[in-house]
């Protein structure tokens, strides 16, 4: 079975950009995925010969109680429930936000395997700024973050290998 990896995080952190980088075929084989909700954005990818499925989700807006943001939060929670692992994307340029802490809390309570991906860090992987980002987002209590750039590709293969190492 291919592990199902859900990409979550608040709006605009780069989830869809990461999804596009992690998948070759978008919306592939959705009809062949028993048990998975069909109204989400699924894709397939492969690294080092290992296949995986990725789910993109809408923005997570956990504070709103109704309306579109609530619906998106529900969709994200459903994606988390269906996933074998979660990549929790945060914005390395903005730093840690209160919304990130709320999402992290949800993830910790859900017990799902979650990897924090500190995005928008192009050119920073492997230098002191990367170490500062790692220390900052370590406070989310979800282990060692991976520092990546979804737009440029820095750190993305290492991140997905880290996620897949658990399976
Ligand atoms: P989503 O709302 O979380 O799905 O975020 P998107 O993937 O739509 O990206 C939101 C914005 O962030 C877009 O303008 C992207 O081009 C930008 N973005 C995404 N990834 C990166 C990155 O690695 N570096 C930079 N500098 N910008 C990024
Ligand atoms: Mg998106």
From TrEMBL:
GTP 1 binds at residues 9-16, 56-60, 119-122. Keywords: GTP-binding, Nucleotide-binding, Repeat, Ribosome biogenesis. Residues 3-167 form the EngA-type G domain. One of its GO terms (molecular function) is GTP binding. Coiled coil: none annotated. One of its GO terms (biological process) is ribosome biogenesis. Belongs to the TRAFAC class TrmE-Era-EngA-EngB-Septin-like GTPase superfamily. EngA (Der) GTPase family. Associates with the 50S ribosomal subunit. GTPase that plays an essential role in the late steps of ribosome biogenesis. This is GTPase Der.
């Amino acid at each position: 079975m291919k592990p199902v990896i859900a990409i979550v995080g608040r709006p605009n952190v780069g989830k869809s950009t990461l999804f596009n980088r992690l998948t070759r075929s978008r919306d592939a084989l959705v009809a062949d995925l028993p048990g998975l909700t069909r109204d989400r954005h699924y894709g397939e990818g492969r690294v080092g010969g290992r296949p995986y499925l990725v789910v993109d989700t809408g923005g997570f807006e956990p504070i709103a109680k109704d309306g579109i943001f609530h619906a998106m939060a529900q969709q994200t929670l459903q994606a988390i429930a269906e996933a074998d692992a979660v990549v929790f994307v945060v914005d390395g340029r903005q730093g840690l936000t209160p919304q990130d802490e709320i999402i992290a809390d949800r993830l910790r309570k859900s017990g799902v395997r979650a990897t924090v991906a500190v995005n928008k860090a192009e050119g920073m992987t492997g230098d002191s700024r990367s170490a500062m980002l790692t220390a900052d987002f370590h406070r989310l209590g979800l282990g060692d973050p991976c520092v990546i750039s979804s737009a440029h590709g820095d750190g993305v293969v290492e991140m997905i290998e880290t996620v897949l190492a658990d399976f």
